[in-house]
Amino acid sequence: MIKEKVSLHNIDEKLFEVKVFESDDFKASSFTHFLHNYKNGVSKYYKNDALLYVEDILKKSYTSNQITNKVVEETLQYLIFESNESVPFLAPENPKFKFIDLFAGIGGFRLAFQNLSGKCVFTSEWDKYSKQTYKANFGEIPFGDITKEKTKSYIPDDFDVLCAGFPCQAFSIAGRRGGFEDTRGTLFFEVAEIIKKKQPKAFFLENVKGLRSHDKGKTLETILNVLRNDLGYFVPEPSIVNAKEFGLPQNRERIFIVGFRSDLGIESFEYPKPINNNVVLEDVLEEKAVSVKYYLSTTYMQTLKNHKERHKNKGNGFGYEIIPNDGIANAVVCGGMGRERNLVLDKRLTNFKPVTNITGEVNREGIRKMTPREWARLQGFPDNFRIVVSDAQAYKQFGNSVAVPAIQATAKKILDKLNY
């Protein structure tokens, strides 16, 4: 038995320093999910592994004969009330509905749905760096690989909306009907299987615009066939939604697919109309001068110019692009590439001494890459969204993310139909 209650304070910091591991750590994910769901009954899905997590931490400070089941249980209950709530994006105190966040990335869907009074009760993301960002901003470690049956076993029942920005993959449907079984082995199949088993009231799927023409249209045709005919959901025609039409200075088109369970009697749905509030690049640029590390070297600038000239001679429009302050950025590209397509002119730099290894000198024209914070703003993430990874990972994460205002506007339409 742990004799001194105050001794719990000595292990609080260790308990809350939940590490993000490369492989799935079901106990750590369960612990963070338990702390965030103790009020809504969903905690039962996570309690066993949360107790195991607490027991593992206690073993580092106490002998095994001191750590009884009662002590572990009391410690977990204690931590509910002492839990660290310093993360910037906590769930609303009185949520109106529950949702799950699959292929969560850094939480763009979660941010949008929380802004509309939703409570996220399960999240999954396999990339360890995205998990770090997710934990820093929402206080939870996402579960890992959603193709694993163990991962799916933690998904609770009775949530209202399923959200997923699943990757685009081709299906092997030659000469077949293109139904549920034909999607096996793809990540869409995992989403469809969860919808089939859990029967949420609605789902909201997001993908690249190219899904519409992928495999000559067969991929989207199969997806809609599965959602409508195999799963029995009302699915209106998908819509191509552009971030620039929802208050972001970025030309980013994505396909949105929403659906409603047939027993709800929903037979119509309208995607949100553009708000077109004339934002421009200048609205997202850094207020202060940025580090010299974002400025291109003269050697690299010449390489970009040569590359653009070669493509121009071939009749192609490829190459670097400098976006004017009153213009609209090109899409921040999936994977974080394409920074050279969104260069800006910023002549505020006064110290041209490099802080990284470069070939040549820092250019004097004021040409620089956009910063990770500027990419975050292009995607609609507020400035208190924490960037806790390297610049390379941050570019990748924001490039892979959803445009939050476009997601939120569509989510509002879904919730209106559900009367939330």
From TrEMBL:
Catalytic activity: a 2'-deoxycytidine in DNA + S-adenosyl-L-methionine = a 5-methyl-2'-deoxycytidine in DNA + S-adenosyl-L-homocysteine + H(+)
Statement: the UniProt record of this protein carries the keyword Transferase: yes
GO molecular function list: methyltransferase activity
Keywords: Methyltransferase, Restriction system, S-adenosyl-L-methionine, Transferase
EC number annotated for this UniProt entry: 2.1.1.37
GO biological process, one term: methylation
Transferase recorded as keyword: yes
Active-site residue numbers: 168
Protein name listed in UniProt: Cytosine-specific methyltransferase
High-level lineage: Bacteria, Pseudomonadati, Bacteroidota, Flavobacteriia, Flavobacteriales
